[in-house]
Amino acid sequence: MAVAARSETPQPLSRFILPIAGLIGFVLCIGGIAVLVDPHGGEHLLAWIYDLLGNNSGALALRNGQGDQLFSKILLALVALGVGVGGIWLLFIGVGWLVSQLRPQLRDRILPWVFVGPALVLLTVFLVYPAVGTVFRSFFDAKGVFTLANYSTLATPEFIGILGNNLIWLVVATGGSVLLGLVIAGLFDRVRREALAKTFVFLPLAISLVGASVIWSFMYTWQPASKPQIGLLNAVITGLGGQPLSFLTQNPINIYAEILIMVWLQTGFAMVVLSAAIKGVSTEIIEAARLDGATERQLFFRVIVPMIRGSIITVATTIAIAVLKIFDIVYALTGGRFGDDVVAVRMFHEMFQFFDDGRASSLATVLFIAVLPVMYINLRNFRRQQVEA
Amino acid sequence: MRNRRWWGMAVVTVAVAMACSSTPATPAPTAVPPASQAIKTTTPVTPPPAVATATVAPATAVAPTTGPSAAPAVPTVPTGYTELDTALTPGSDGTMPYAGKTVDIQVQWTGGELTNFTNSLADFEKATGITVNVDSVPSSHETVLKSRIEGGSPPDIAQLAQPNGILAYAAENKVIDLATFMPVDKLKAEHPSLAFLTEGSNIWGLPYKQDVKSLIWYPVKAFAAKGYTVPTTWADLIKLSDQIVADGSAPWCVSAGGPGDATGWQLTDWVEEVVLKSGGLDLYNQWINHTVKFDDPRIKNILDNYLGKILFTPGYVYNGYQSVVAQDQKTTMDPMFNQDLSAPQCWMQKIPTWYGPDFFPDQRVSGQPSKYTIGADGDIGIMPFPAVDPTQNNVEVSGDSMFMMVDKPEIRATMEFLATPQGLEAWILAGSAISSNNTTPQDWYAGSYKLQVASQVFNGASGAGFDASDIMPPAVGTGSFWSDMDSWVNGGGQNPTTDATLQLIDTSWPAQ
Fold first, then answer.
1. ipTM of the predicted structure?
2. Residues B106 and B134 placed together within one structural domain of the fold
3. Which residues of B touch A (CB under 8 A)?
4. CA distance, residue A247 to nearest chain B CA (Å)
């Protein structure tokens, strides 16, 4: 390592560069953090600088809450950047140098932990601790009394309906996206302007979930039968002589209307991954299958699909995880008011509207448990792919 | 190859910069150009709205103030409040004691409403030297507020439409008790709605702005042309509705208050209105605290024979009950304007005071002031909701309340200012607000027909009931009460049945 090499060369003073730099960086970081923690840190720092430069009036104005607010904000941003980027860099250099002073065996054991350590600490603090805290919180009701009621209410018809809606979402949305993506990937393999066609299918993925909900809400708009239909679907239906249908307020069609939006968004992702996988199947196998007399359909479903099984599982699990967490579409369109409530929307309502943190936590825990099997399948598939590679 | 890579990076950078630059506009605390805006809780075009009850008034256009007022809109010393007197009195050296201090207020209002609120504070800021920073968080006010409060950096003062929200925060010891520094008797005498923010001897919030809900909007000239008279009793209302049906039109424009998360609030308003006017304040209060349950025969009677009568009688609701939950609340009254109000297709809509010309079809679309006037001899008029039981002359109200989370002298002074009539003066003179303070001079409302009618209804009532959705536990008030009423209406009152619906709401009541 360059760090180790430099410290071993016996040059005067230069062997102290790294530790001194590390020390200076450390001090600057502490100062920077002190500035960031202070609610008016930017103003105080700029005031201090102004004092050094002799601009006393500017410093006084800043300390009173007026003055060059813009400069103080820019200064604060620079300090944050310096601490965030420079600080971390110096931290790694400094600690790396420290560790490299140790004996080789000890150094080799500790060094990986030095580099992974901060990330692990952050993950523990911001991911593991809140997760454990949520599970813990789910056993207390709104007043702080220990109870299992948050879980027993999940067995009431209302919540079973919500969990059932999530199950419908999981099966239909994931299955739909993967199937559609697979079919499109297979068909587009032979199309002449393949890249252009694929772009159109892939484009919706760039749209946010809320944006897609707004777009599709105009498609689903319902007007009373006597007025002209401004929603595309209802215009088609009334044009063919039918009665306009309120897609978003009629249950259960509203669930499938919302799932359609998700499928529209995710098909592009499935298509892209599966298309790459299909193209990865070696042509010799395909030719051999053709020589053996396989029809195109048999070729696709009996030869290609089993070969890209790993990709299909990856795509399916990724979409499944996104679908299990679905919130934006349901919240933006109906707020879950018409029998199409899902776990994430209900959790949001319990937390921010009904002030029942315990119930919200139990819903979050249920969602977490529901995602675990999907993650396990994903990991197992990933590991198997690593072995095969 | 190298060129392409640089171009690619440049394109990506520009795209990211454009995407990130579309931040939501942060409104300045000073006057913002007034704009007519749609209701924040319901438009599908805006980002997911706040889950506030739709009783919060949406932005209305700022009407020109009725001439320059000679006196600044601050109360004269002595005001009856200690810190306010201190704030308004120059010190011995001539400077104001709290000059240079800042107070943060977080509100849900935006557009015209925000302008009116900041205008109400302008003279106070000038007179005391306090800078009031108004944080407008229109689309997720409650979420942001909860995060700030739970996270330990609350705003100094915040506005909420639901008293139960304020009481919930008070239960977590996050709210300053106003009784510790404000004269309780004066507060109670001047604010009839204070009861809903009081727990024992603790006063957790201050009613600020009031909305009257017991109003029905109707086309005045069309009524006169057909010889219809304004009904004063429920029986007359039904007779009028039958008459309109017989004449070939539909009497009622009804929406559940959607689309989106707040769908259902108008249906619950109907129920609360009739409870107040038939069973009185006693029944209402018992119903709110669940002593009288939802499946009580009196509540069931109201659903079946009052709200159900309006919604399910064939021909009553324009486009039938099936349209009620899907009908967008902004466009509900449009059929009334058919052929320039000469042939209305629906004749009455029950909607609160915050409704106004900015919802009329021409102004809503063009943004230009509407050509339709509101007034006793204008195009659109307002009638009080008719009496059900003549002895129960109660009015349904809702409103916005302020509550305080940080205790400092200048914040106390600001709260006290908001408790005075002058705290809302600019807003009232703009024709868009009613003060919760009953000592507000009646001539401030003189310029606005709508506020006159509303304040007459309010002042003439023997009792006022605050919107139950804001008082009941939120899981019911803005949760099951709304959702289950939506399902009830959607199924024509048969599927689910009234009994099933009411029992569902009962089971959702959180255990005490």
1. 0.73
2. yes
3. 44-45, 47-48, 51, 100, 102, 142-143, 146, 165, 168, 258-264, 318-320, 322-323, 325-327, 473-475, 478-479, 482-483, 486-487, 490, 504, 507-508, 510-511
4. 9
